[in-house]
Design brief:
Layout lengths: L1 E5 L14 H11 L5 E6 L8 E5 L6
Antiparallel strand pairs: 1-3, 2-3
Length: 61
């Protein structure tokens, strides 16, 4: 699963429910999912913080 999201803790009018990488890590742990691996980040044009991408990969055994 690929997640691309603003790496922010507080929302704004334009990004009301951001999901920071730290919160994504906690959420994945609570769900029993693999830990997300940060792929890249890019500065946004209009918001503070960064836009981050993370990969959540399930490995079949």
């Amino acid at each position: 699963m690929l997640i691309v999201e603003y790496d922010l803790e507080r929302g704004s009018v334009w990004v009301p429910h951001p999901l920071s990488l730290a919160k994504l890590q906690i959420l994945c742990a609570e769900l029993g999912w693999p830990a997300p691996q940060k792929l890249a980040e890019h500065p946004p044009r209009y918001q503070r913080g960064m836009i981050s991408s993370a990969l959540i990969a399930w490995v079949e055994s």
